[in-house]
């Protein structure tokens, strides 16, 4: 009989499941404005894709969601439900366009539903019920942060995995839209590794009140996407 391989980080398998492309949050249906970026000729090759996603990680939703993730995780870890609800409300309000809000809310709710069904947790259930009662919309970043905190997945590992999954999903959308080959897609993800590492380090070091974004082109393209004639994605 084979000897089981020990898992040194008990959160590893859970992160791999929760942030896998196969996890049922519908991530494949969202491009985070990349469809309009391709349609208007702003992203047409691998280098432009790297620049585009890097910009989002540094100055757009990647930066803002990372800050919200940390704040939500710490509130959950402290079992401070009012603070968590405040952060979740802020996360939803900070989405720049209707479609980016939909992208976050739909994935956040789907994430809660899937995690609750497969990994039941009393504390997670209690907070999601309070959210429904108070009509607090789930944000994807704060939903993942809450679940990670409640099962003792480390903050650094959880946030790093979330940022990687976020970047990988935009990469997947661009690969399908341009189109690019699968190898180019992996080269994009490889090139983004140091960007994600830097974003992770800066987020953990940043003052929690220093939150915001400056990705106006992404928001503008997301607005354009709402009336784009031919489209594959919901954002």
Walkthrough of the structure:
This protein is mostly helical and 235 residues long. The protein has helices spanning 12-18, 34-39, 46-59, 61-77, 81-93, 98-118, 122-133, 140-150, 155-177, 182-205, 216-225. Helix 3 packs across helix 4 (61-77), helix 4 (61-77) runs antiparallel to helix 5 and helix 4 (61-77) crosses helix 10 (182-205). The longest helix has 24 residues, at 182-205. It is globular and about 45 Å long. The mean pLDDT is 94.
- In N-to-C order, the SSE pattern is HHHHHHHHHHH
**Content-based structural category:** mainly alpha
* Helix content bin: 55-70%
Contiguous runs where pLDDT drops below 50 for at least 5 residues: none
The main pleated sheet reads as: none
Q: Can you tell me the overall shape? A: globular
Taking Cα atoms only, what radius of gyration do you get, to the nearest Å? 17 Å
The strand count comes to 0
CA(first)-CA(last) distance: 49 Å
Give the DSSP E fraction (strand runs of 2 or more residues). Answer: under 5%
Number of helix segments? 11
Roughly what is the average pLDDT, rounded to an integer? 94
Please give a handful of descriptors for the protein shown.
11 helices; mainly alpha; 235 residues
